[in-house]
Amino acid sequence: MLGAIVGDIVGSPYEFHNIKTTDFPLFCQKSRFTDDTVMTIAVALGLCQGANDPDATREAIIDAMHELGMRHFFVGYGQKFAQWLLRNSREPYGSYGNGSAMRVSSVGWMFSTLDDVERYAEISATVTHNHPAGIKGAKSVAAAIFMAHTGSSKDDIRSYITSQYGYDLSRTLDEIRPTYRHIESCQGSVPEAIIAFLESNDFEDAIRKAISLGGDSDTIGAITGSIAEAFYGAIPEWIQLEAMTRLDDNLRTLVVDCTNAFHAKG
Q1: How high does pLDDT run on average in the chain?
Q2: Three-class secondary structure of residue 185 per DSSP
Q3: Closest to 189 (Cα-Cα) out of 101, 264, 261
Q4: DSSP string, 94-126
Q5: How far is residue 129's CA from residue 108's CA, in Å, rounded to a whole number?
Q6: Using the 8-state DSSP alphabet, how is residue 178 labeled?
Q7: What b/e string do you get for 126-160 counting C-beta neighbours within 10 Å, with b at 16 or more?
Q8: Going by fewer Cβ within 10 Å, which terminus of the chain is more open, N or C?
Q9: Contact predicate 190/140, CB 8 Å
Q10: What is the C-alpha separation between 108 and 136, in angstroms, rounded?
Q11: What is the pLDDT at residue 138?
Q12: Which DSSP state fits 216?
């Protein structure tokens, strides 16, 4: 989960001011958490409260999204999601945006089988993003995270995501980068984020390569960071500290509590 938060914060200054290089300050004065961080924590909180019951988890995720979303309202939500929050809606609105994929990271850590990971990833998506492409984005990222932290190789992850979800992961970053633009759909950002992880050498390198693509930088960073954390293990301490200091006390406490809950379950 912290990997997604780091990727969000690092990518935030570049979302509408894209850079096409890996040579940039990892953190700067404009680095801040966005809706990606808030909803990542909301899903984690819902999972902790759902007690492995699908219906209870769905309701708990919705409750957490509403609570944290309204507490942190001006952090960059898309128009339809903001309207969903303001209406206090409990019904999805058919989105295929990449929000379902950027917030799913905790699902990849919470469960002990790939089947359960994919099942609960779908639950976490369908509370808002019940379009097939939105569901596919969440399930593929959660599956990659689960495989990454349970010992699968990059080749295994690439093969599974390609065969199970049909994403083209054969392209290279150098091929993608020159013409890549701001795309907020799962189908236009999840494969690119996974490729950034696949080409990386360590956690920091993964984040830098994700941001270097341009596009929806904070969300690309969050998706790549969530997989990279699972694959490479502990995030460098200085990066953790930089990210955590940019959260408020409430979000910082929730990150620690949820992380401890996942570790206790594991």
Answers
A1: 96
A2: strand
A3: 101
A4: ---BTHHHHT-TTHHHH-SSHHHHHHHHHHHHH
A5: 18
A6: G
A7: bbbbbbebbbbbbbbbbbbbbbbbeebebeebbeb
A8: C
A9: yes
A10: 14
A11: 98
A12: S
Residue with tokens 């490479």: 232
* Crossing angle of the two packed helices 249-265 and 54-71, in degrees rounded to 10: 160
DSSP 258: H
Structure tokens given for 248: 């408020």
List 61's β-bridge partners, or say none. Answer: none
| CA gap 200, 12 in Å, rounded | 20
pLDDT in tens, the chain (266 residues): 999 999 999 999 998 899 999 999 999 999 999 999 999 999 999 999 998 899 999 999 999 999 999 999 999 999 999 999 999 999 999 999 999 999 999 999 999 999 999 999 999 999 999 999 999 999 999 999 999 999 999 999 999 999 999 999 999 999 999 999 988 899 999 999 999 999 999 999 999 999 999 999 999 999 999 999 999 998 999 999 999 999 999 999 999 998 888 766 65
| Interval 31-44: pLDDT, tens | 999 999 999 999 99
Looking at residue 105, its amino acid is S
Between helix 217-232 and helix 35-50 the angle, nearest 10°, is: 50
Question: Facing residues of 185 across strands?
Answer: 97
Question: 203 by DSSP, 3-state: which?
Answer: helix
- What domains are there in the chain, each with its CATH number? 2-265 (1.10.4080.10)
Integer Cα distance of 234 and 240 in angstroms: 9
| Closest CA relative to residue 62, chosen from 101, 103, 118 | 103
